[in-house]
Design a protein that fits this description.
The complex is a heterodimer. Chain A is an alpha/beta fold. Chain A contains 3 helices and 7 strands. By secondary structure, chain B is mostly helical. The chains are: A alpha/beta, B mainly alpha.
Chain lengths: 170, 258
């Protein structure tokens, strides 16, 4: 006789594990969970609700991400609601250690920690050096606080002479 | 629906506040996006384009809140693109043509600091706005850093750059306080804790902030002007031209979206 385990109840952790497979559209090597973009997850009898925290208010990738979340969670067979929320403001401090490693592997320097009291922590590079994602050198300088997308800045490495992109601490 | 908890007077006043904030961000974002491709330095092309993109995103989020408060069937696109020029309520400070680089820096510097003082005045009376403002402030501090750096650079950059900056500040200075044009429903907003202080108190904080930056550079702080009811109406020909530009796609293609 074959014993079949009863279907396990859907948990928030299952939803988060599924969302960890949803890549950031602009940096496909990192998931939206690793970037800290997922807030509260609620599993109801008929509905799964996910709080999505935009990295920037005007992020043009937000609609794509929202659609990817809904598409991935459709597999659970329940209604899916994605609420874009600012109640918990997204901060670059929400990026997980795994996310930081994957950013570096994708050629982006992860952001230094945002510390209270600093107007713009990016300018505090003497205290928290931003290492070059290519050669690891801490001898890098800020070229431009703004970059090709709202969440990135441009730096230059004095050792390998490469310009590179760094996540804005925010 | 949280909107239903608002009294009619507070709802009207909140709609006016949101419209002024959103129109300021929208018009300033569109005006400065005109620099994309032709800014004086490549790095600055990236920076001013990114700042403009931020402001348009902020405008969109504020128009979305406004659409919820008005609940008249219009969405953020309809509010942004389907109004006639005279229905816009951006401040006169933002009603100037792009001008040269000094004009842009002077105008945007005065506006960024004014916007910061305004955001610091938003209380917790309407949580969707308070939440959004908490996020906006994190982004806007980069704008402030950038504009203050440019003011310092132009002030110390030699006779031509300093002369152009002084001329630009003198040209837009008389309109600077228009960002703080009194709101008809201000009292209701303060009572509902949507504003923590009257607009005049935010203006005083802004003036102190400006003074702390401009005076050490030997630059003139714009004179305090008497509050004018016309600070957000009676738009210029340059705004009418800009309106023609930013509504062009929407007017050509019914239902076009962001």
């Amino acid at each position: 006789m074959v014993m079949t385990a009863p279907p396990r109840e859907l948990m928030a952790a299952d939803v988060i594990a599924a969302l960890d497979e949803v890549p950031d559209p602009e940096i496909p090597g990192v998931s939206i969970v690793e970037l800290g973009m997922i807030g509260a997850v609620t599993v109801g009898a008929d509905e799964v609700t996910v709080e999505l925290l935009p990295t920037f208010v005007g992020c043009p990738a937000l609609e794509v991400i929202r659609e990817s979340v809904a598409a991935r969670l459709a597999a659970f067979g329940r209604d899916v609601r994605v609420d874009v929320s600012f109640a918990t403001p997204w901060s670059s401090d929400r990026i997980s250690p795994a996310g930081r490693d994957k950013l570096r592997a994708s050629g982006f320097a992860p952001p230094p920690p945002v510390r209270a009291g600093r107007l713009v922590p990016m300018l505090d590079a003497a205290a928290v050096p931003v290492a070059c994602p290519y050669c690891g050198s801490p001898r890098t300088t800020l070229d431009n606080a703004f970059g090709p997308t709202q969440c990135r800045s441009i730096r230059h490495c004095a050792d390998c002479r490469q310009p590179f992109e760094a996540f804005k601490p925010i | 629906m949280i909107e239903l908890a608002l009294s009619p007077a507070v709802r009207t006043a909140l709609a006016e506040l949101l419209l002024t904030m959103a129109d300021d961000e929208f018009v300033s974002g569109f005006t400065d996006s005109e620099w994309t491709g032709i800014a004086p330095l490549l790095e600055e092309d990236v920076a001013i384009s990114s700042i403009s993109q931020d402001e348009l995103g902020h405008a969109r989020a504020l128009y979305q809140l406004l659409a919820g408060v008005l609940a008249d069937g219009r969405d953020e696109d309809a509010i942004a693109y389907d109004r006639e020029p005279d229905a816009f309520r951006h401040a006169r400070l933002l009603d100037h043509a792009r001008g040269d680089w000094a004009d842009t820096i002077a105008r945007r510097f005065l506006y960024e600091l004014a916007d910061e003082a305004r955001l610091a005045s938003i209380g917790d009376g309407y949580p969707p706005l308070a939440d959004l403002v908490g996020k906006l402030q994190r982004e806007e501090r980069y704008h402030r850093m950038h504009l203050v750096a440019w003011i310092e650079r132009l002030a110390h950059g030699g006779p031509e750059s300093r002369g152009r900056l002084e001329a630009a500040l003198a040209a837009v200075g008389p309109d600077a306080s228009s960002v703080f044009t009194p709101l008809a429903g201000e009292q209701a907003l303060v009572e509902a804790r949507i504003l923590t202080r009257p607009v005049a108190a935010a203006e005083a904080a802004w003036r102190a902030d400006l003074t702390g930056i401009l005076v050490p550079l030997g630059l003139q702080v714009p004179h305090a002007a008497a509050p004018s009811a016309e600070g957000r109406t009676g738009h210029s020909e340059s705004f009418r031209w800009l309106w023609g530009e930013f509504t062009l796609v929407r007017r050509s293609e019914d239902g076009a979206t962001w």
